[in-house]
From TrEMBL:
The lineage of its organism: Bacteria, Bacillati, Chloroflexota, Dehalococcoidia, SAR202 cluster. The gene is rpsQ. InterPro entries: NA-bd_OB-fold, Ribosomal_uS17, Ribosomal_uS17_bact/chlr. One of the primary rRNA binding proteins, it binds specifically to the 5'-end of 16S ribosomal RNA. NCBIfam families: PRK05610.1 (NF004123). The keyword DNA-binding does not apply. It comes from Candidatus Lucifugimonas marina. This is Small ribosomal subunit protein uS17.
Length: 107
């Protein structure tokens, strides 16, 4: 019996050896007959911690690894480069832009 495979996007990668993958699908509306985009979330086992948020991945059904993990990462289809921004950087930029604004108002 072949195992089911899905492609989705990594939504969360904070946990060790686990990622949350969102798989989008269309559900027809019962009344209006228009397709609505729905999303299913799967907790996936990622042994090497190689997937990051935003990556397109291929996942496959597997035996239960933990209470919620029933899928495993097969491959990363498309890797996304996400800029690392720290909260301290945002605060310092806001402080700098606030200082610039006060200097302009004094002139």
């Amino acid at each position: 019996m072949a195992r089911r495979q899905r492609t989705g996007t990594v939504l969360k990668d904070k946990n060790d050896k686990s990622v949350t993958v969102g798989v989008s699908w269309l559900q027809p509306d019962r009344i209006y007959k228009k397709a609505r985009r729905m999303q299913s979330k799967f907790v996936v086992h990622d042994e090497q911690n190689s997937a990051t948020v935003g990556d397109r991945v291929l996942i496959e059904e597997a035996r239960p690894t933990s209470k919620t993990k029933r899928w495993r990462l097969v491959s990363i289809i498309e890797k996304v480069d996400v800029a690392e921004v720290q909260p301290a950087d945002l605060v310092s930029e806001a402080a700098l832009s606030g200082a610039d604004a006060s200097e302009e108002s004094e002139d």
